[in-house]
From TrEMBL:
This is DNA-3-methyladenine glycosylase II. GO terms for molecular function: methyltransferase activity. Signal peptide: none annotated. InterPro entries: Ada-like_dom_sf, Ada_DNA_repair_Zn-bd, AlkA_N, AlkA_N_sf, Alkylbase_DNA_Glycosylase/TA, DNA_glycosylase, HhH-GPD_domain, HhH_base_excis_C. The gene is Ada.
């Protein structure tokens, strides 16, 4: 085994808990750490079905990338490249996101994080135990392996989609590390290049797909989305590449996976698109742990019993989501959706023809920043807030990349007229998939936590709600979504 870079040391406590987790194949730890086996040179997920190796032959690693960088190869039985993405600390997530967005370019990643290149390298190495370059090399290889095994893409498309620039170097790198040419690793029959890619997105635990779809159906803007009781579809633009995608649940019995089909002529956007779709449908959540933390409340417990697969619906595009959240302040879902649709038609660009009849892209900030929002049925104060928000977003959207706790963002944003704590927490809860965001002033939450049928005056106070929510940390966003759901049980 190569041992060039020291990995961050584990505490004895961590080691003990990892040891217990791997002996019991505890699924709650899947994606949280990986096991390198010195005697075989293979690394596994904690859930792997192979006979557990002796402790003295085992090394623990925080990510698959690091295990691979340390010279281990991914196990063919548990497929570590498919493990759920770990929930990283916020600063680590920011460092890593920048590297992935800028395709391994350290200079641009450093700028993105507003750090010098030296600071960026130093912080990255301290957080991950490997340099940004090493991380990127291993990350592309694992992304390629994932696409080879889980998509119908041609070898050339997998090569570019995973961040390689030359097919020859891609073939060499794959062969060097995995011992086989890409075509032999691919489970699918590689097709000629098409403009349609199918990718399997695995998840673990319960997942109520119909409930997730009904949430999006209620908020559907038909110009940009198409939601049925089986499928979610929408158009997208990413880095000036556009297209549309559909998501259905796998039809293979007992297979825990969504099937994503992407229609586009440039697959380089795939890694970004996949991670957005995973977030949108909350595929990396560990519901067991979340239920244990929030299940003490009686209303929430009832929802867990009835719909244990309720997950946190996210969003595909943050800017679009913030506009829709502002429109949703003190409005019904239906009214807010109607207004969002009008904005979409008035300012959005038309999209390419598609069989689902979607006609527009939601306008980005470049288009909305000059909009006057006249004639759409919006009040003057709502228009002022939208204008103020577009201006603010233009200059400050980085705030969403660097905050440590949502309270910091709240302090900044509530200075804008028309933006209150509810909006900020709703941005964070669904726009950023921040699991601890909590719109405590939400009417639904107030209703769910108050005595049934009590007068408005008797309702639970905001202070009491916040105090109660302490016990649900760091999963208050889930408490919120479960409390909303509890209203539909009681009605
Ligand atoms: Zn394994």
């Amino acid at each position: 085994m190569s041992n060039k870079t020291p990995t961050p040391d584990l505490t004895i406590h961590q080691k003990k808990s990892f040891q217990r987790a791997r002996m019991s194949r505890d699924a709650r730890f899947d994606g949280k750490f990986f096991i390198g086996v010195v005697t075989t040179g293979i690394f596994c997920r904690p859930i792997c079905r192979v006979k557990p190796p002796k402790e003295e032959n085992v090394r623990y690693y925080a990510t698959a990338v690091i295990a691979q960088q340390q010279g281990f190869r991914p196990c063919k039985r548990c497929l570590p490249e498919l493990a759920p993405e770990p929930r990283l600390a916020l600063t680590e997530k920011q460092l890593l996101n920048a590297l992935l967005i800028h395709q391994g370019n350290v200079n641009n990643s450093a700028k993105h994080c507003q750090l010098s290149e030296r600071q960026y390298r130093r912080r990255f190495s301290l957080s991950f135990g490997v340099t940004p370059n090493q991380y990127w090399q291993q990350h592309r290889l694992l992304s390629a392996l994932k696409l080879l095994r889980n998509s119908n893409l041609s070898i050339t498309d997998v090569c570019f989609a995973s961040g390689f620039n030359s097919v020859r170097r891609f073939n060499e790198a794959i062969k060097d590390l995995y011992g086989k040419a890409p075509s032999l690793l691919a489970e699918h029959v590689p097709k000629e290049a098409t403009n349609q890619a199918q990718i399997k997105l695995p998840y673990q635990g319960e997942f109520d797909w119909p409930l997730m779809l009904s949430f999006f159906a209620l908020r559907q803007i038909k110009e940009i989305e198409h939601v049925t009781d089986q499928q979610y579809a929408r158009v997208f633009t990413l880095d000036s590449t556009s297209g549309y995608f559909t998501v259905i649940h796998s039809e293979v019995p007992n297979e825990q996976a969504l099937l994503l089909t992407v229609h586009t002529d440039n697959f380089q956007i795939l890694p970004t698109l996949i991670s957005r779709v995973r977030k949108m449908f909350d595929l990396d959540a560990n519901l067991d742990i979340i239920h244990q933390t929030i299940g003490g409340n009686e209303n929430i417990r009832k929802v867990i019993e009835r719909t244990p697969g309720l997950r946190l619906p996210g969003c595909f595009d943050l800017f679009e989501f913030t506009i829709r959240a502002i429109l949703g302040q003190q409005f019904s879902v239906k009214a807010a959706t109607t207004l969002a649709k009008r904005i979409c038609v008035a300012y959005g660009l038309p999209c390419n023809a598609n069989p689902l009849g979607m006609s527009h892209h939601f306008p980005d900030n470049n288009r909305l920043i000059t909009a006057n929002f006249d004639g759409l049925g919006l009040t003057q104060s709502r228009i002022s807030t939208l204008k103020l928000w577009c201006q603010y977003y233009e200059n400050n959207h980085q705030i969403f990349n660097y905050y440590n706790h949502i309270d910091e963002v709240q302090q900044e944003l509530v200075k804008l007229k028309g933006i209150g704590p509810w909006t900020v927490n709703y941005f964070a809860m669904r726009g950023l998939s921040d699991p601890d965001a909590f719109p405590s002033a939400d009417l639904g939450i107030i209703k769910a936590l108050s005595e049934k049928g009590c007068a408005p005056k008797e309702r639970i106070k905001n202070k009491e709600i916040l105090a109660l929510a302490q016990q649900w940390r760091p999963w208050r966003a889930y408490a919120a979504i479960y409390l909303w759901q509890s209203l539909s049980i009681n009605e």
